[in-house]
Predict the structure.
Amino acid sequence: MEEKHYILNEFVAFLSKSSVWIITILSGVIAKISFDVLGGRRLSFIQWCAVVGISVFGGYMMGTWCDSNGWEKQGRWMVPLATLFSEKIIMWCMNNYDPILRYIFLKKKDKEENQ
């Protein structure tokens, strides 16, 4: 019985610690869905699930980055914006992966040659 109580306490502690990030991600998802609906975008249920999944992923990544760099106050506006634009950012990265990877690896190669 104590194990269930321990797990429940840990879950409540996690929710209270992460509540700001969860609320900001949810507000970004709501803004994304509202923006798409007002824009007349028609998607199937599976496509909406994919959009929400990508948005949550982008918001989570920005929240993690803000948390690890001590940007808690800035994260309150950066996380919803990242959530809102993450679908477009990921689509851009998917369409331009070749130049991005060339830039990253050529820059690393240049640094190694100069040392």
In short: Residues 2-114 form one domain. Residues 37 and 82 are 19 Å apart (CA to CA). The chain has four helices and no strands. The mean pLDDT is 85.
